[in-house]
Every structure is written in structure tokens, then in C-alpha cells.
Design brief:
By secondary structure, this protein is mostly helical. It contains eleven helices and no strands. The radius of gyration is 21 Å and the shape is globular.
């Protein structure tokens, strides 16, 4: 909703107001989150939000836990599945950061959107991304409920999602702006559907107390790769070479999905020494 909200504020009260008002809104999120946390924390419907102070780690326990994690980390780095998740996350996040940072500018500079058009249509690809994340999780769970294995359900959704990304490449060649927005929305739908599966697979493979560690490592690789990819995008954009950028944005996800299919033969719990 950010593009529409910011566009509306800027058109009505000026661009400086967009910074002030959105900044104030962000400050309101903290007390709202604190209040909701207390409400849900006391509810029996949400037991996972309730903390147990009696189980809080002592200093000695924290040191012991850290030594265990170091040993576990060394073991994990020898697993092919971890490196597959790290590399596939790096490839996928590079494209997602490209869409987040460059899509509004592309619509303005190449598709000649003014601020009003950006507010009216620029939000659609990001809303489509939300739908992709929800749909991927639902479809995967539905397939499992129908008797599909976890391995097949995750990989099918991941593969289909990844091969929606070439729609973003086609958007570059679209004859009109509306077609471009539609094709970009298909691509962002695929990005988030792919990302949802990639965030789910670690919990299917690694022990529960290590899922955060694995997701953290893959997330770090995605952020670093995304930052590096923006340098490449900036250099190509300065030369007016947007075509190669959209081509890369269309093929990296299929490559990443194929990497998962070939690198992780079966998505199932690993017998990892604790």
C-alpha cells in the first residue's frame, strides 16, 4: 500500500509531508505491536506467544548452548542441502531487491508514469506478491493433504513459481504500460511464492532448534547478493541497458529452482548430530 499512500499524501500536501506522515505512522507501530503482544500473550489460543521465565537460560547455559551451536554450525557447513539453500536464496533475493528498489523508477522513467499513475497502479505488483506468498503456502499444504509427499508438494510449487519470473522479462517488451504492469505482477507473484517455499524447506529438513540458524544464514546470503546485484543494475541502467537487467531477472529464479531440484534429492528430515 506504500506507493498509493505516499502518492496520495504527496499529491495532496506535498512530497515533504509524505516523509513526515509516514515517519509518524511508523512510530505508532511500536505501541500497537506492544499492545497486541500483551493481548495475544495472555490468550490460551496463542500459547507460543507466552514466554516461560523459568526456562530462561542462565549464563552457564548460554555458554554451553553457544559451544553446541558452534559445533552444529561446522557440521551444517558440510551439508550440500545448506549450500543449496544459501545459493538459491541469494539468486532469488537479488531479483526481489531489484523489483523493490527499481520498479517505481522504471515505471516513471521508462513507462512515463506520473505520481498519480504511480499511486494508482504501482501498488499492484506488490499486492500480487502478497497473494503469491499466501497461495504458495496454501497450495503446498493442500497437496500434502491430498496425499502428496512433502518433497513433491514443495518442489512442484517452487518450480511453478520460479517459471513465472520470465513474465517480468516480457514486461520489458510489452507494448503498453497496463500490459507491463500485469506481466510484472505475474513475476512478483512468482517471486513471493518461490520465497515462501524456500523459507518453508529448512523446517522440513533441519531440526526445529536449528531452523532459525539455517534461515538466518540463507537470509544473510540473500541480502549480500541483493546488495551486490544492485551495483550491477545501477551500472547497466546508467548505460541505458535495461533489457539485460530484465533478462537476468527472468532467469535467476528458474536457475535457483533447478539448483534446489538437483541439489536436494529429497526434502525430508536430516539425521544431523546434535
Amino acid at each position: 500500500l506504500a506507493l498509493s499512500v505516499v502518492g496520495f499524501i504527496a499529491l495532496r500536501w506535498g512530497w515533504r509531508s509524505a516523509f513526515v506522515i509516514t515517519g509518524l505512522i511508523s512510530l505508532l507501530l511500536l505501541p500497537a505491536w506492544t499492545l497486541l503482544f500483551r493481548i495475544f500473550g495472555k490468550s490460551k489460543l496463542f500459547p507460543r506467544f507466552v514466554s516461560d521465565r523459568h526456562n530462561a537460560p542462565t549464563e552457564q547455559g548460554s555458554i554451553h548452548s553457544w559451544k553446541q551451536n558452534k559445533k552444529k554450525l561446522k557440521t551444517y557447513f558440510m551439508l550440500r542441502s545448506l549450500w543449496v539453500l544459501i545459493l538459491s536464496r541469494a539468486l532469488g533475493d537479488s531479483v526481489w531487491y531489484f523489483y523493490i528498489f527499481w520498479l517505481p523508477g522504471y515505471l516513471v522513467e521508462v513507462r512515463h508514469f506520473d505520481l498519480k499513475m504511480l499511486a494508482q497502479y504501482g501498488w499492484i505488483p506488490f499486492f500480487s506478491a502478497d497473494l503469491g506468498g499466501l497461495m504458495a503456502g496454501w497450495v503446498s499444504s493442500w497437496l500434502i493433504a491430498k496425499g502428496w509427499s512433502v518433497n513433491c508438494s514443495r518442489k512442484i510449487v517452487l518450480l511453478v513459481a520460479a517459471f513465472l519470473l520470465p513474465a517480468g522479462t516480457l514486461a520489458y517488451f510489452a507494448g503498453n504500460s497496463i500490459s507491463a504492469v500485469v506481466l510484472l505482477s505475474v513475476a512478483t507473484f512468482g517471486i513471493m511464492a518461490y520465497g515462501t517455499m524456500l523459507l518453508t524447506i529448512p523446517s522440513d529438513i533441519f531440526p526445529g532448534d536449528s531452523v532459525g540458524l539455517v534461515i538466518g544464514l540463507s537470509g544473510a546470503s540473500g541480502s549480500l547478493a541483493g546488495a551486490a546485484f544492485q551495483q550491477l543494475v545501477g551500472n547497466l541502467a546508467d548505460r541505458g541497458a535495461m533489457g539485460p537487467i530484465f533478462l537476468l531477472a527472468g532467469i535467476l529464479h528458474p536457475l535457483a529452482a533447478c539448483l534446489v531440484l538437483l541439489g536436494i534429492k529429497k526434502i525430508q528430515p536430516l539425521q544431523v548430530p546434535r
